[in-house]
Amino acid sequence: MEYTIGDRVRGKVTGIQPYGVFVELDEQTQGLIHISEVKHAYVKDLHELFEVGEDVDVMIMDIDEYSKKISLSIRSMIKAVHHPFSNPRKNPRFDRKRGIGFDTVAEKMPGWIDTALKEISEQSEE
C-alpha cells in the first residue's frame, strides 16, 4: 500500500523497545513510533502503554525514501492538554500590571486615542 505523510492509519504493535514501538501497517510495511511521539507527557516505560499484538491508530510523520523507514506518531493525533503559556504569571508576552499583550494596532488604537485625549483635556483644564 502507498502511504503519504499525514495519513492516519491503523496498525498492529509487533515489537517494543526502550526507544520506541514497532508497528506493522500492512504485510510489507512497518514503522516506528519513537518514545517522544507516544504522548505529550513523559513516558517512562512503553511496556506499560502497549502490548505486542495490540491495534493502534497512528499518523505518518515522515517517510525516508532511501531507507524506506516510516516514522509514526500517536502524540500528533492527540490535542495537548497543557499549553506552555496557560499560566499568565509565567507568560513573558503579557504584562499583568498594565494589561499589555500582543494585540493588533487596529485593536489598540481606539484605546490609545481615548487615553491621549483624556490626558490632553486634563492638561488643558489645569
Automatic annotation (TrEMBL):
Organism: Dolosigranulum pigrum ATCC 51524
Transmembrane regions listed in the UniProt entry: none
Source superkingdom: Bacteria
GO biological process: translation
A GO CC annotation given for this chain: cytoplasm
GO molecular function, one term: mRNA binding
Protein name: S1 motif domain-containing protein
A Pfam family the protein falls into: S1
Annotated ranges, domain S1 motif: 6-75
